[in-house]
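FIELD: query
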Amino acid sequence: MTTDSFNVDEIRNKVISENVLSKKIIDELQDDQLKMIEDCIVNEVPQWENKESQKIATYSNTYRYLLGWEWDKAKGLTSLKNSCEWHATIKPETISLSNTEKISKQGHIFHHGFTKDGSPIIYFQFRKMKINAFDDETAKLRLYNLVYWTETCIRQMKPGVTNSTWLIDLKDVSISISMAKNLKKMLEKLGENYAERLGRCIIVNPPWSISLIYNFARPFLSNRCLQKYIILKNAKEQTKRISEFVHEDDLLVEYGGKSTYKFDFEAEKKIDDERIQKLSSSSSSE
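FIELD: result
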């Protein structure tokens, strides 16, 4: 089918029927963008050899990858295809806390609460990270642990919410060049397979090196990307700024909120084991 034959109203209704993207996002989609999404799904995706990956290329997922590549169809479609194949192969929804226990039990990454606009919050407290190795096996576990929390947040998202908020605490953290390179590699892999899943990244207690790196990279980042990152250098600024996005009941006490939540690995693992068991039972019955 040619894009000239596409009916934008019909495409918009298909996007709405998925009940994933917000009304604001859908209303702001231009006709040529809607047609590009439809062109990918109708003309391009069916040509993929991996049938399972085709099922993952929904309207909302296609939108996220095209948006991530600023509506460059060739790059967005290639990225979407690679990601859908990764999801079809890895099946990240089956990754559990038990799978990544060596890393996840440290409790340096966890989900708690939501922002005022409904975005799930992932906390990163790197001072709790006791395992500093980055061999292949450990690096894989680190990635899968982050994938686990990303998938957890996606399951928590209500219709209209498509991304999460990260609150990264770098208090008492010394970032070596080796650590920075390995973290960059992990985050790039996550970004490749979860395009536009990060809505906002708030960094608190940053060492001087972070500000230096950020200022160096800033000229090379798009305005849309820059708007996602907020670096807060002092406690007073931290509390005031974070409260703009997060209700105090959802924000941990140490960041100026009222929540006394403490990550309990065993409790979280028990809940997740039940989820995996239900998922396994569901798959067996199909």
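FIELD: remark
The longest helix spans residues 136-156.
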